[in-house]
Write a structure and sequence with these properties.
Elements (H helix, E strand, L loop, with lengths): L2 H14 L14 E5 L4 E4 L15 H15 L7 E5 L5 H13 L5 E5 L8 H9 L4 E6 L10 H9 L10 E7 L7 H10 L3 H9 L7 E5 L4 H15 L5 H15 L4 H14 L6
Parallel strand pairs: 1-4, 3-6, 3-7, 4-5, 5-6
Antiparallel strand pairs: 1-2
């Protein structure tokens, strides 16, 4: 085989197996998003988040996650955390707000977002984070698994770390609508159809047990919903007659068929726009 053919083969192999990711510049930003094909950590210039003080009705979860993260940022051991429960009640907002609150005093605390569908690449990501002189909140939003989903095996690498152990400078925070990370009907189906029902789902269900912190988020009542809107109005300087504000807010949630922090924020965005108030 001549040299020209060998060079073509070498070029083809290089395209199939791209060069490994260079050491990221973690000083470029306070937050990053992990992408694959090819592997890369993309800096986020401005994180989409709200101030911690604007999150109303989740005081216990807020204080618990803030204390856990502050200990981690200070160099101490900390627990992985699963934030589970009702949609739109501030689970992902809380993670981002806690990081934003602590980053000023702990600039080496970085937030890295990992998509659920990229969970299979987490071992490669952890290798990059392990070698860095920073501390990382590895964050996966809306984490869940179906009965035939194999990504849960990769999650064990984050929670347990295998023979190497989880990197000392990484803590994992995940949000989910499900406490056990898989639908209840799938759990029951596997239990009813398996030869050994208890073992059939134990491996998947036990994933949630590997989180040191379980923080539950539950639907808000009307008073909490209105309190969220009042807090937004005060923070952004929107002045509306109290009776009018209450009536419009209740009508808004009635048309949505639900009350939540997300619905409260959506109403406030509409309210601020109608009153000529710019929201940064």
């Amino acid at each position: 085989m001549d040299d020209q053919a060998l060079n073509r083969i070498a070029d083809a192999l290089e395209r199939m197996a791209p060069a490994p990711l260079a050491a990221p510049d973690f000083n470029a930003a306070s937050a990053f998003v992990w992408h694959v094909d090819p592997d890369r950590l993309v800096p986020v210039a401005q994180v989409n988040r709200v101030d911690l003080d604007l999150l109303v009705g989740i005081n216990r979860s807020r204080d618990t996650l803030l204390d856990n993260t502050r200990r981690f940022a200070s160099g101490f051991k900390a627990n992985n955390a699963l934030l589970w429960g009702a949609r739109g009640m501030g689970k992902s907002s809380l993670v981002k707000a806690v990081h934003g609150t602590l980053h000023a005093d702990h600039p080496d605390l970085k937030l890295v977002e990992l998509q659920r569908e990229d969970m299979g690449s987490v071992a490669r990501l952890l290798n990059h984070l392990r070698a860095a002189p920073h501390r990382f909140i590895l964050f996966c939003d809306d984490l869940s698994f179906s009965h035939d989903d194999q990504h849960y095996k990769s999650l064990k690498a984050v929670l347990d770390g295998g023979i190497e152990g989880r990197p000392e400078n990484v803590v994992f925070y995940a949000t989910s609508n499900r406490r056990h990370l898989m639908p209840r009907d799938m759990i029951e189906n596997e239990r009813s159809s398996a030869i050994n029902p208890s073992e059939a789902v134990e491996e998947k269900v036990s994933l949630s047990d590997r989180f040191g912190l379980w923080l539950g988020f539950h639907p808000c009542d009307q008073d909490e919903y209105l309190a969220m809107i009042d807090r937004y109005c005060g923070a952004y300087g929107v002045s509306v007659d109290a009776k009018t504000l209450r009536a419009e807010a209740i009508e808004w949630q009635a048309t949505r068929g639900a009350r939540s922090g997300r619905v409260a924020w959506q109403f406030f965005v509409d309210l601020a726009g109608r009153n000529g108030v710019y929201i940064a």
